[in-house]
Amino acid sequence: MTMSRLHDHGVMAAVVAVLFVASAALADDAVLVSITGPLVGRVGERVSFEVELVNRSGRPLQKLRVIDYFDKGFHHDASASPIEQKGTIDLMPGTARRLTLDFLLDEPGRQCHRVEILDPSHVFVGGATHCVEVEATANATAPRVVAPVVPQPPLAAASGQVPPLAAAAPAMVATAPQPVPVPSPAAVELDLQGPAEATSDGVVSYVATVHNKGGAASTPCTLEFSWDELLSPVEASDGYHLVASKVTWELAAIEAGGHLKRQINLRAKAPAGAYRDSPPTRSCVRAVLTGLTGGGMLADESCLGISATLPRPRLRTPSELGLKMSLADLDDPVRPGDATTLVCTVTNGGTEPTGRLDLIVILPDQARLDSDRTAARVRIDDTRITFDPLQPIPAGGQKSFEISYRMPVGGTGRATAVLSSTELDGSIERNCQTVFLEP
Fold first, then answer.
1. Which domain range does residue 85 map to?
2. What is d(CA 149, CA 166) in angstroms, rounded to the nearest whole number?
3. What is the model's pTM?
4. How many domains does the chain have?
């Protein structure tokens, strides 16, 4: 397969599907439904239909119900019409699910069944109909054959002898007409293959194979590759057409039993902030086949985990960054019934802005926060006070935070402030003791 270089862009794809599409959903249906199976049959035959559901709504669809309504010429082992698929189906955007329905053909004539998809609110979101021309079972019998009458000569009057009868004509045997075989329709399948993992900056290959497993040539169709943002195209099979972040090929008709392949090579890139010890980042490639008979669509998806190769940088300590913190009270000692105010000051004595910082103040047991005098946005968990994340402090700058509390009894209260960050190796801790006078 000849490959052509591509401009830098990125790949996607969806789910295997099959066969002659009997009927497709409307363009605005959230779920594309296609039914594949035989177009003709005979009474007494058991036939199988494959139903494919494709989520083309662009959003996750959950708890979908699948219901099949069928004519009386169809017989299902489970029950009379309608039947409902056991359980519900969840579909992520662009993905598909295939189901199989089996029937026994009971009566001649045009027999149809319709698959409808309902959401949890019982609202119709997609459907399709498939019909089969059912013929009566051939059971012709040979017509009865009557031997021709042979005229008898007169009796010999003198001798009294009777001349022998003429030999009877051989019997004629009627042969029942032989049924003319009906060729099976095109049966198209899509299969996308690719690796399950890759390292950052590595090149991975994805191959989509379009099979025609039916008895007739398929119609010309369009194959499309698309990809997630962590993947960018490097080269692709000749004849591609690049639009935005998608690559398409116009495929000619495929003869019965034949297949076509198209390949794309992509470069994987780990996201920013991912390191060698980070879990792999999931990214997907999707292939979509459109333009099938009846307006159907097939899709397949292949996903991989992309691992970063960069080592995690060593975290610096607060002192290496020039970070300092102080904690002091404004009232000490505190008169009975009054509150004291703690002032926590964070100073950046370094040469570059800090990252995001987290500040926690732990008050003494039995302490009560004086919300009227607390000039900060905090979250309270018993005596643990968590400030909203501190925004970066510029080099040479500082920020102060105040919090007021009171004690119901006299004694010495000990408060603790802790400054930390995911970008720091270690934390800063400061304490402040305040005397509360007895009533």
1. 31-135
2. 10
3. 0.42
4. 3
